[in-house]
Amino acid sequence: MSLEEYFSLVFSDYTLRTITLGTAVLGAICGMLGSFAVLRKQSLLGDAISHAALPGIAIAFLISGAKNSNTLLIGALISGLIGTFWIRGIVKKTHLKSDTALGLILSLFFGFGMLLLTFIQKMPNANQAGLDKYLFGQAATLVESDVWLMCIITGISLIVLLTFWKEFKILLFDIDYTKSLGFNTRFLDILITSFIVVAIVIGLQTVGVVLMSAMLLAPAAAARQWTNSLGTMIFLAAIFGAFSGVLGTAVSASSNNLSTGPVIVLIAAAFVVLSFIFSPGRGLLFREIRYWKNRNDLQLHKTLAFMFNIAKNHEDISHPHAVKILNNFQGYTKRSLKKLENREYITVSGSMWSLTKKGYKKATNLYNQQEETDD
Amino acid sequence: MSEKIAISVDDLTVAYNYKPVLWDIDLSIPEGVLMAIVGPNGAGKSTLIKSILDIIKPIAGSVKIFGKPYKKQHEHVAYVPQKGSVDWDFPTTALDVVMMGTYGSLGWIKRPGQKQKKAALEALEKVGMLEFKSRQISQLSGGQQQRIFLARALVQNSSIYLMDEPFQGVDATTEKAIINILKELRKAGKTVIVVHHDLQTVPEYFDWVTFLNVKKIATGPVKDIFNDDNLTKTYGINYKVSIQQ
To answer: What protein family does this chain belong to (chain B) (predicted)?
Structure first.
């Protein structure tokens, strides 16, 4: 199937439509909640939670003996939450730093989960095949009820986000100040962390334990590059996440054997790379251009300022002076004179230059600006 | 003393990992003073402020704000944290940060409206930052960021102001501007408590001082207790400053 075929089929074919919708909604909720993780500098938390969910999936299978995805996700949710609270506990009660606690819980739970998975694979139960899809995810297994569940959870988290918008915003920016205003920061913290855990758990089936954290972080990191407003950032992250989901599904559906989860993550990563390079305010490209332009301008301004100092001693500011007297000053080249002339700051005739009114005004402003910034 | 006590600290002890940071602090701060907390690095100055604000839980002792625990009195207290305690690359504007000062009186869920915005703009004007209201906060200078924090506390319109090193990394002009605002607050009958590092300016800026080095060394009016004896006790070495009275 080619990409064109995919897009012509996506609205009519039941399976394709379900998968596309599912990955889009998943991308949106992950982008939205991932913004919180990124702004709280808890980027690794998502990784730890998703890995911590693995033993829960295995244990839920062992207890129920069936591969019902809802049962398994409840198992994932419980062990994900246990992992999260252990991390909080370790950080609070011991001298360990949070990155150590995260790494510890991540590998401990993941190791235990892998152990259980190999144990299950050796069991004489035909049912066990395919449990390892939770490692890297398999979007093809999404059914309509899964998509409904994702939509409901996205809806609920959107309502909670809008209700506590002001509280979340201040919590993200300055937690001590939030406490001093009398807000219960513990409640807010648990609320936001719980939603991140839920978002991770519903994504496990599609993207898998190993790559899930990229779904949270990549859209948020990309969105941060384009805006200086929290609301816009969260909105953009949701859009980037949704597009990663749709494009990833499209690419993987149109070329056989490409696993959907990794493709979605790669496309989200492409959003990050493009944002880091091309975003106007913070992007590398424009920063380089601005830097280069500033250096150029500075050179011209230096020359102009020098000319201004000579010209201001004369009654007539456009009194011609010899180019020669600029020789003592290193900022001047033939090219910079030409540039100043092009901007109509000076006029050059033969070996004489004179400042124009425009150039005089510009130079005066330069000085004023300098005084302002020096203040 | 006949004045009302704004903050009373009783047998306060705080420890991080078994190491005491504050040891058995007793403190009565009368209403309407402009007080400096001085002491060397690691003396527990910030910890004392955070304990008063109920941000850090003590292992013993209690703090009362106008005779009641902090939980019931938080609307009477405004806090200016250390500038370095937040990430200034957070996606928001100067006005938005100052608006946060109104969140406490709004309480849960309720959104700020025109009234809150007006108050925030007034506070920005007071600290001379009105023209920067739409500026992304990472594009403000250190002194401007400090003024934004001050404006955020001013919006709260509280009776008590607790400030953690508001003069850190600001230039002379900003320092003058800030101290003028603090003196205005005192004139309006507010209690202002400031963690301060520059001992030279203590007599000029403040009327009350607390010497702290894990234990409380002394507290009282600057003219009575700001002397070489207390400075030496606090800083350990023979610490002499010329005090211009």
So the answer is: Belongs to the ABC transporter superfamily.
